């Protein structure tokens, strides 16, 4: 017994002497720490941030235009004043760019209703308004679609029955949302023709199941962010003029 | 192998008997303490969330994070401060300054390293490159091949940090960019298989470079319903990783998860949601003796 203890003691000494062996994590503790108001902010960091945030706030909050009515995305069944404004802005802002680059013109614009991220209250509008309407970085893309693909798009709208923002197309549906008449540039859709449709890169890539945007005849990037089309438009006009109209309506 | 275990166990018992009451303080003296602090998916949230935020009102904020990290540094100087990617995109700070302020602040907080998230490509790979002069910390990514891009030679496949004599090996994994980021943004960045890369990297760090702790900074995402590679799948498919610090899925883990790796050992996975609302903290206590539990470690989470 005595020998055994001595042996153990010698072994222990051996361990102490050869401390160059590899270290191993023996105990590990893990947790998360909430960053909340109980932690006082570091003032030098706060002061460093201040000029950046002041510049941002000044820019975002400077008035660009005036909105005379309360706009929200639920004020109509198949078209809304706010959705019409967004689709029309894309047409007005992007068409000149597209035309100057390609010599072609945009025939219609289609966005998604879910992409309208905020309401716009009556009063002054600023860049912050554009950020809340469109917080994402999505860009406008243009696809050249065959008339058949446009008809697929119409079938999508028939079953979707939602006020997706549209511009450049007029659609009348019956009480069961089946299309009675659809015209682009005052003409019926020609399956032999192709059409230039502006939308967001998100939708073109299959967002909201808009699969008719896949495999277009031609595809054009514009490098123009949707949010920037809105900001540029606000800068251009004094007063926002938009209303619910007859571009996409149900005939009772 | 069994014989070796037996000898180790005997030795450990022997040490205990031999030193009697002294053994506790003895082992405490020999423990080294490394603290890993981490964030992920901060997404340009420099100021706290607004008072009206529906989920996390008035949470987060870099100035508060700075105070907290400073306090922990005062308690234990042996700290690594890490980020698992998606530093960029989410507030006008990014839209206005392109990530400059995010990198400057992370440098002021003395971040040691970050991996690269998909949103860090949002201003294109050139936009990321343009902000590098503001980053006083390393970018570590092992499965993005940047050879034919401007980021070539500005990203490390792994790095070994030494703290109090402890070797901590870090490698990084990014999510597949195709379908997630427009190709014109990431250009010729090549995505390599995370499991293969992780297997190589963790073996190199643990075996060749003799690291005591191996950490994977991952932007793969915590887990998916599909077959997509995730931190949970990675943990099970590899060995030699001690800790996976995750991101991408904005998963709010209340505490780190313990998973079992390919060779039956424990791996920790942690992820702290997003927007700098939480700081993750993992404390490693190291000992020369591998004698706490079956695989040599006790984990309390």
- Using the coordinates shown, work out and report the CATH topology of chain A: 5'-nucleotidase,  domain 2
Mean pLDDT score of chain B = 88
> Which protein chains are joined by the largest interface, and how many residues does each one contribute?
A-B, 47 and 77 residues
State the shape of chain B.
globular
The separation of the N and C termini of chain B measures 30 Å
* Unreliable residue stretches of chain A: 1-20
> What is the CATH superfamily of chain B?
Metallo-dependent phosphatases
CATH architecture of chain A: Alpha-Beta Complex
Task: State the name of the first-level CATH class of chain A.
Answer: Alpha Beta
Q: Estimate percent helicity of chain A.
A: 25-40%
Low-pLDDT segments of chain B? 1-27, 290-294
What's the tally of helices of chain B? 9
Radius of gyration of chain A equals 30 Å
Structural class by sheet pairing and helices of chain B? alpha/beta
Count the domains of chain A.
Answer: 1
Q: What is the fourth-level CATH superfamily of chain A?
A: 5'-Nucleotidase, C-terminal domain
First-last Cα distance of chain A: 103 Å
What gross morphology of chain A would you assign? globular
Indicate the percent of residues in helices of chain B: 25-40%
Name the assembly state.
heterodimer
């Amino acid at each position: 017994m005595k020998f055994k203890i001595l042996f153990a003691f010698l072994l222990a000494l051996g361990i102490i002497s050869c401390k160059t062996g590899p270290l191993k994590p023996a105990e590990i503790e893990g947790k998360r720490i909430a960053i909340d108001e109980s932690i006082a902010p570091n003032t030098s960091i706060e002061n460093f941030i201040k000029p950046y945030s002041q510049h941002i706030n000044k820019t975002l909050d400077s008035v660009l235009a005036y909105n005379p009515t309360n706009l929200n995305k639920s004020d109509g069944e198949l078209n809304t004043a706010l959705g019409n404004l967004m689709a029309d802005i894309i047409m007005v802002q992007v068409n000149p760019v597209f035309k100057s680059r390609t010599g072609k013109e945009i025939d219609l614009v289609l966005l998604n209703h879910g992409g309208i991220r905020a309401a716009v209250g009556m009063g002054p509008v600023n860049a912050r308004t554009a950020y809340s309407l469109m917080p994402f970085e999505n860009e406008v893309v243009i696809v050249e679609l065959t008339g058949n693909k446009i008809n697929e798009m119409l079938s999508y709208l028939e079953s979707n029955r939602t006020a997706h923002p549209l511009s450049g197309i007029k659609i009348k549906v019956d009480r069961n949302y089946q299309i009675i008449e659809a015209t682009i540039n005052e003409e019926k859709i020609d399956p032999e023709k192709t059409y230039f449709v502006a939308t967001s890169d998100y939708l073109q890539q299959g967002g909201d199941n808009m699969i008719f945007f896949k495999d277009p005849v031609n595809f054009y990037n514009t490098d123009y962010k949707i949010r920037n089309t809105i900001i540029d438009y606000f800068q251009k006009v004094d007063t926002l003029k938009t209303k619910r109209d007859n571009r996409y309506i149900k005939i009772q | 192998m069994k014989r070796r275990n037996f000898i180790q166990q005997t030795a450990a018992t022997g040490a205990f008997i031999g030193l009697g009451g002294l053994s506790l303080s003895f082992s405490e003296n020999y423990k080294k303490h490394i603290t890993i602090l981490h964030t992920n998916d901060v997404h340009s949230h420099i100021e706290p969330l607004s008072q009206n935020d529906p989920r996390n009102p008035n949470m987060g904020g870099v100035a508060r994070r700075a105070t907290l990290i400073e306090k922990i540094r005062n308690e234990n100087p042996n700290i690594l401060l890490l980020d698992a990617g998606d530093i960029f995109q989410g507030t006008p700070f990014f839209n206005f300054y392109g990530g400059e302020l995010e990198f400057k602040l992370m440098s002021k907080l003395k971040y040691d390293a970050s991996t690269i998230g998909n949103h860090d490509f949002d201003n294109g790979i050139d936009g990321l490159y343009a902000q590098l002069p503001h980053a006083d910390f390393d970018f570590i990514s092992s499965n993005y091949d940047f050879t034919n891009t401007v980021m070539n030679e500005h990203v490390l496949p792994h790095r070994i940090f030494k703290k109090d004599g402890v070797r901590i090996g870090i490698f990084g994994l990014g999510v597949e960019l195709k379908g997630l980021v427009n190709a014109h943004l990431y250009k010729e960045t090549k995505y390599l298989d995370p499991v293969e890369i992780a297997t190589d990297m963790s073996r190199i760090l643990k075996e060749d470079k003799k690291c005591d702790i191996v950490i994977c900074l991952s932007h793969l995402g915590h887990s998916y319903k599909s077959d997509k590679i995730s931190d949970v799948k990675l943990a099970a498919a590899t060995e030699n990783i001690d800790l996976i610090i995750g991101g991408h899925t904005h998963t709010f883990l209340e505490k780190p998860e313990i998973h079992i790796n390919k060779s039956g050992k424990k791996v920790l996975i942690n992820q702290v949601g997003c927007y700098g609302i939480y700081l993750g903290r993992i404390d490693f206590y190291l000992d020369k003796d591998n004698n706490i539990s079956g695989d040599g470690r006790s984990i309390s989470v």
